[in-house]
Amino acid sequence: MKVQEVIMRAMAKQITWWQAAEILGVSTRTIRRRRRDWQKNGFDGLYDHRWKRPSPKRVAVKELEKILELYREQYSDFNVRHFHEKLGEEHGIHYSYTWVKNALQASGLIAVRRKRGPHRRRRPRRPIPGMLLHIDGSQHRWFQDERQLDLIVILDDATSEIYYAQLVDQESTRTVMAAIRHVVETKGWFSSLYSDRASHFFHTPKAGGRIDTRERTEVGRALKELGIEPIPAYSPQARGRSERSFGTWQGRLPQELRIRNIRTTEKANLFLRTYIAEFNRKFAVPATQPGTAFVPVTHLNLDRIFSVLHERVVAKDNTIQFGNHVLQVPSTRFRATLAGCRVTVYEHLDGTLSIGYGPHTVAQFKAPGETMERRPKKAVESAAAVEIRKKRGFPQAAWKAQNAFHTSHSLGRDSNKRANPKP
């Protein structure tokens, strides 16, 4: 509590002066001096006035004690507005309502109410489709058993039309990228995407705080390359349109799956491809204006955009270490060798890989088990193996001498042939 709050509680006899001294951490002599200054100068007596004069509009301590005593003994069950009226009508005390309320709250005679929130209005829809899309995932027991799966849904803000709905084990970077790519391929480019602040959308240094716009995730990088503006939501109420849509999904989809005896994720996703049309026919609304903001995408490489990027440096033997595998970089027409060059490994959504050097695609790989070659166990000599070889005395000097002998012998034979040519 502030100093003046403690003094006010002591003046209102909510606590004793000895307890006030203990709360403030001062001696009884100091609290007696502060009480004397309070009775003499009111609030201004609690501060240092060597550089200014006390306020001439301060309320006398006798008046304040009288107001607190009246409320405590006669009007303790009155609200502040009612008590303020009685002060003027019955006792001739005319102070502002705000001053009376602050005095009663500071003395602890009434509770401090939480400040009201601002008046909120529902955000109007966008006028035409394609201006703003919502993406979110809802975890639910969609099969009405112990399994909890995520339903990823993309809907339009203008019409609430569902463009994508699929069940996945968990909402992640790849599942979100697959959803956005489906919309871009089927509908076209759109203006902005509204989502929560999950880690695959934004980097949030502090939990529940502001996002870091300087560092992008893989999804953020893909949206930037497409020119789509990502918009973060800072509360569930901000995503009210998608949250209400999920309420409808949770009230209908489990029952639809049950009556059709669908128990697997694959069959459920096949059913969703046709059920989306029925869902839109019942719950979509017309846009307020004609037209569309969707633009066809034809000049962009969506395979590269919607993939997870990894930077690697090509080794001297034109290989790349990727996880537990080694990727062999083939020769190219535009460069003699890529050894020492920094390339990009694209991990596509379908599980395939490709290596890119600038705009060029150097190599493509199918499933990892089919095209990636495992590095041999003894292809690279470890530091421990080098130490063991040195201790055992590997005949490296003899090997060098023998190699030098063969080299010199072959050179000498060649020189003799040149010195004594055949007739």
| CATH hierarchy, class of the largest domain | Alpha Beta
Helix count equals: 14
The name of the CATH architecture of the largest domain is 2-Layer Sandwich
Task: Describe the strand arrangement of the main beta sheet, using strand numbers.
Answer: 3-2-1-4-5
What gyration radius follows from the Cα positions, in whole Å?
Answer: 39 Å
Task: Give the % helix.
Answer: 40-55%
Order of helices and strands: HHHHHHEEEHEHEHHHEEEEEEHHH
**What is CATH's topology name of the largest domain?**
Nucleotidyltransferase, domain 5
What is the number of independent domains?
4
Query: How many beta-strand runs?
Result: 11
Distance between the termini: 117 Å
Shape assignment = elongated
Which superfamily, in CATH terms, is the homologous superfamily of the largest domain? Ribonuclease H-like superfamily/Ribonuclease H
**Could you report the average pLDDT, rounded to the nearest whole number?**
81
Unreliable residue stretches: 372-382, 394-419
Most strands sheet = 5 strands, mixed
Question: Which range does the strand content fall in?
Answer: 15-25%
